[in-house]
Amino acid sequence: MHSALVRVQNVFGFFTTVAFVTAIVVALSVTVIPQTPTASLELRNVQVVKGRPHYHSPKREEYAHIKFDLDADLTSLLNWNTKQLVVWITATYPSRIASEPPSQAIIWDAIINSESQKNPSTPFTLYASFMNPPKTSTRAKRTSKPRKPEIQLAPSLLQFKNSKPKYQITDISGQLSSTSNVTLELGWNVQPWVGALTWTMEEGKGWGRWRGIKGGRSKAFDMPALKVKGVNPEAVKGSGKPEKVAEASPIVK
User: Fold this and answer.
1) Which of 211, 197, 239, 241 shows the shortest CA–CA distance to 37?
2) Distance from C-alpha of 252 to C-alpha of 36, rounded to nearest angstrom
3) Are 197 and 190 in contact (CB under 8 A)?
4) pLDDT digit string (tens) for 86-110?
5) How far, in whole angstroms, is CA 41 from its chain's centroid?
6) Euclidean distance between the first and final Cα of the chain, in Å?
7) Interval 78-87 mean pLDDT
């Protein structure tokens, strides 16, 4: 009853209980932090060209090259329990068959790491910084000229003007030209250190102190007709190294 093994088991059991309770408190603590993301997403340019998904593929399909303007403030999504934030922009359009749900394809995505993820504070990093402090010579201090402070935006502030897409999109039918009622939407996924994943909350919805995104959706537009003449060779599939392609898939809710 009072052996060393029993005492070790008791200590380990107490430790796991405390760790489990602490994890629950940490996961629930973020619900009291307000979340009010805002975004403005606009279409800048769209082109539909025809090419091959791979340089060795004999089949030619239609691809859409969509440029956009994005101005988003996602700072409220980052808190002390956030590990990273995955952000993406999707193009949503009706399917060719009326009975099927609308199709959706990603044209751009990014991963925003939190400060704790970029500069983790572990016993090893603290020990390394203590044992190896940064060295600066006195001569360099005397000769160096004062530099103007550089203005850098926070990683959660996204500002893009006439940005190129990361992925050109295609449809499973191979046709995209003259598609109507296409919209661009901003979405995200918050990955915490402890707790459940949270996804995009639409405008007008809310839960506690969390509010849905304000904006984040472009006006509806139509895909142009197939561009044949005067096409930029870099935008056409099948010439040189293949670019990334995102294939549309139906939205299942």
Assistant:
1) 211
2) 27
3) yes
4) 999 999 999 888 788 999 999 999 9
5) 14
6) 56
7) 90
Res 121: pLDDT: 59
Mean pLDDT of the chain: 79
Question: Across-strand partners of 106?
Answer: 90
- Which single residue is written with the structure tokens 């402890």? 194
Tell me if 47 sits within 8 A of 87, measured CB to CB: no
Tokens of 88: 């993406």
Which candidate, 106, 121, 32, places its Cα nearest to that of 76? 32
Length of the chain: 253
Query: Which pLDDT tens digit goes with each residue over 195-205?
Result: 889 888 887 78
Q: Which residues contact 240 (CB under 8 A, 6 or more apart)?
A: 55
Confidence of residue 30 (pLDDT cuts 50, 70, 90): confident
Query: Three-state SS string across the chain, please?
Result: CCCHHHHHHHHHHHHHHHHHHHHHHHHHHHHHCCECCEEEEEEEEEEEEEECCCCCCCCCEEEEEEEEEEEEECHHHCCCCEEEEEEEEEEEECCCCCCCCCEEEEEEEEEEECHHHHCCCCHHHHHHHHHCCCCCCHHHHHHCCCCCCCCCCCCCEEEEEEECCCCEEECCCCCCCCCCCEEEEEEEEEEECCCCCEECCCCCCEECCEECCEECECCCECCCCCCCCCCCHHHCCCCCCCCCEEECEECCC
DSSP string, 138-152: HHHHHHPPPPPPP--
Query: Higher confidence at residue 143 or residue 21?
Result: 21
